[in-house]
Hints:
Blueprint: H1 4-32, H2 34-99, H3 104-127
Amino acid sequence: MSSPPLLVAGIAGLTRKVWLAGLGAVAMAGEGGGMLFAALVEEGEKVETQTRQVTQEKVEAVKTQWEHTVEDLRDRATDTFDGVEQLVEDRMARVLLRLGVATSEDVQELIVRIENINSNVNALLDKHRLP
């Protein structure tokens, strides 16, 4: 499909030719009589209606194609960004693991162990307290 600037240029050229044909028809009608003029006006109105309809359909088709293209590009960009984000997260996790930095799971496990030790110490203190 043609790009929008080429499509617009083609439509503009066609519109100019139609306009010039209309001017020529008016000149000929002035020489040939009123009936011919009326017939040309009627035919010109039909052509104008058809041209507007075709032009509107072409504009809508181009608009729809551009909307789909933009949506596709947006989806691709989002997928690429998500992939890069996951790659960075994975590499950071590996670096932190190599450096010995605890993960959130490690910290949670330590919290549970500390709570258990604390409970055991309190139980021993309660057991050995003097009455």
